[in-house]
């Protein structure tokens, strides 16, 4: 099987078998050392604002053994640590808290992750209007116990971590200043069209590992969005309309069976699309669906495809293993044009990816 496809593809791309054999060692070596997006997820937000965590894990607070710890400022809740050398951060993580303490007004970074907090009571952030980050992941927060106006005064909030909780809805309204919203690993089942309205600066939205069946057109208006992760949900349809700045779209492990024609045209910067482990068939795809010139990586593995769909000539990585593509049979159809840049093409499980391009690395 492997040789049949190598020959077929090699013929199409005028890469001779001799050349393939001669180069294959070198190629595989080169490819193994290539950074795939799977190994090194592209960070849409490359600048990491100073991570305000002064303690080095097990090492404990940074004062000399024997000398008394520096006094904590009086406004610090007794359950938390407010290091004097970092006056805008408050640490209340990993200490079995069942409720949220009131946040003093000077705080910009607050950490409540990995506790047993089940509610966000009204007023808790009301004095801390300068908050930039709130970490609440790894708790048991349910949607019914999130105060209606808890986030409404936070005009500067940029990152909100609510992943790994018991939410069934997206909290609303959310501060329009948000840049990153982490809502993955909850039990959210629906995203109303207006749930994310006005989030003009949102660059990354994490909604994977939820129970979402439909997102309607809620994503379309997110004009700064670069990364959208909706993997591991119950989507049968792709979102109605993609944001125009989008670069990474993750939809793997859903039940999507079709993608409309020209679907990716509205996102001219799209680089990575993952649609593995869905229910795609060739009938559900138009001939131009994946012919999007910006795409570098397309993962269509573990679907029900019988033919390789037409792809753009700029594509570098194409994953097709776990489909019903049969290289020996008549159904096998290679990409219509020679894919000059393709570096990976995996058709079958446990198969070494085939190299069909002649792109000069480096
Ligand atoms: C909230 O801020 C006001 C005004 O700065 C202050 O008087 C009040 O004590 C603060 N509340 C708490 C609980 O810190
Ligand atoms: C949150 O979900 C976990 C796991 O599903 C469950 O054990 C826990 O009781 C839930 N907590 C609340 C407050 O609903
Ligand atoms: C979005 O970001 C810009 C530039 O950083 C800022 O000026 C603007 O106020 C932000 N929008 C909102 C709604 O916070
Ligand atoms: C893909 O798109 C290009 C440019 O829009 C076009 O020239 C080409 O014919 C298309 N290929 C297929 C297979 O439709």
Level of helix content?
under 10%
Please give the alpha-carbon distance between the first and last residues.
31 Å
The CATH architecture of the domain at 189-327 would be: Alpha-Beta Horseshoe
CATH secondary-structure class of the domain at 189-327: Alpha Beta
Mean pLDDT: 79
Q: List cofactors, ions and other ligands.
A: 2-acetamido-2-deoxy-beta-D-glucopyranose
Q: Strands of the largest sheet, in order across it?
A: 1-2-3-4-5-6-7-8-9-10-11-12
Order of helices and strands: HHEEEEEEEEEEEE
Shape: elongated
Structural class: little secondary structure
- CATH-assigned fold name of the domain at 189-327: Leucine-rich repeat, LRR (right-handed beta-alpha superhelix)
What is the CATH homology-level superfamily of the domain at 189-327? Ribonuclease Inhibitor
The tally of strands reads 12
Largest sheet: 12 strands, parallel
Function: Affects the rate of fibrils formation. May have a primary role in collagen fibrillogenesis.
Keywords: Disulfide bond, Extracellular matrix, Glycoprotein, Leucine-rich repeat, Proteoglycan, Pyrrolidone carboxylic acid, Repeat, Secreted, Signal, Sulfation
GO cellular component, one term: extracellular space
Domain LRRNT: 75-109
Description:
The protein is mostly loops and about 350 residues long. The chain contains 2 helices and 12 strands. The protein has helices spanning about 1-10, 15-35; strands spanning about 90, 110, 135, 160, 180, 205, 225-230, 250, 270-275, 295-300, 315-320, 345. A 12-stranded parallel sheet has the order 1-2-3-4-5-6-7-8-9-10-11-12, with no helix packed on it. It is elongated and about 70 Å long. Bound molecules: 2-acetamido-2-deoxy-beta-D-glucopyranose (4 copies).
């Amino acid at each position: 099987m492997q040789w049949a496809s190598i020959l077929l593809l090699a013929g199409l791309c005028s890469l001779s078998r001799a050349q393939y054999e001669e180069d294959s060692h070198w190629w595989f070596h080169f490819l193994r050392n290539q950074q795939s997006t799977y190994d090194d997820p592209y960070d849409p937000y490359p600048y990491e604002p100073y991570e305000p965590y002064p303690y080095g894990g097990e090492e404990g607070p940074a004062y000399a053994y024997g000398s008394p710890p520096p006094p904590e400022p009086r406004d610090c809740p007794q359950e938390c640590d407010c290091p004097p050398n970092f006056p805008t951060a408050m640490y209340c993580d990993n200490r079995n808290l069942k409720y949220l303490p009131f946040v003093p007004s000077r705080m910009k970074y607050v950490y409540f992750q990995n506790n047993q907090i089940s509610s966000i009571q009204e007023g808790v952030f009301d004095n801390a209007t300068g908050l930039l980050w709130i970490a609440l992941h790894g708790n048991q927060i349910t949607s019914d116990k999130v105060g209606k106006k808890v986030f409404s005064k936070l005009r500067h909030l940029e990152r909100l971590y609510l992943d790994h909780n018991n939410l069934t809805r997206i909290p609303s309204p959310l501060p329009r200043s948000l840049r990153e919203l982490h809502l993955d690993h909850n039990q959210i089942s629906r995203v109303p069209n207006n749930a994310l309205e006005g989030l003009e600066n949102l660059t990354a939205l994490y909604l994977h590992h939820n129970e979402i069946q439909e997102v309607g057109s809620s994503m379309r208006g997110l004009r700064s969005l670069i990364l959208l992760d909706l993997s591991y949900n119950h989507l049968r349809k792709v979102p109605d309309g993609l944001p125009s700045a989008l670069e990474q779209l993750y939809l793997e492990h859903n039940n999507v069976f079709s993608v409309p024609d020209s679907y990716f045209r509205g996102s001219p910067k799209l680089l990575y699309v993952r649609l593995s482990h869905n229910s795609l068939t060739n009938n559900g795809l138009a001939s131009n669906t994946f012919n999007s010139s910006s795409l570098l990586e397309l993962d269509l593995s573990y679907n029900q495809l019988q033919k390789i769909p037409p792809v753009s000539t700029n594509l570098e990585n194409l994953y097709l293993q776990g489909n019903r593509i049969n290289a020996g049979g008549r159904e096998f159809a290679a990409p219509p044009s020679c894919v000059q840049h393709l570096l990976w093409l995996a058709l079958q499980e446990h198969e070494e990816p085939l190299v069909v391009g002649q792109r000069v690395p480096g």
